[in-house]
Amino acid sequence: MDLVKNKVSDYKLEHFNKMLENFLERLPSIVSSEAFIAEMKRFLPTDVFDRTLAQDKFQVYLQNTLAKLFKTVSNELLGKVTNSEFRM
Asked: Which of 2, 46, 66, 88 is most buried per CB count within 10 Å?
C-alpha cells in the first residue's frame, strides 16, 4: 500500500478515490472489450488464452478478482480497516 500511496502523491492525484470508483464502474466493459481481449491474445500463449480469457466464466472471475483488489486499495487509502490474508 505504501507504493500506491507514494504514487498517488507523486502524481498529485487529488481525486484518486473518485478515479478508482469510475474505473470500477467501467471494469466489466474493459475486461470484456474486443480491444482488451485482442491485446491479451497478443501476449498470452494460445493455450493459456484459450483456457482463460477466451472463456466467459474466466472474464467474470477476472472482473471480480480485480474489483476486490481495487476495493481493498480504496478502503486502505480511506483508512477503512481491512483484514488482508497477508501483509504486503
From this structure: 66
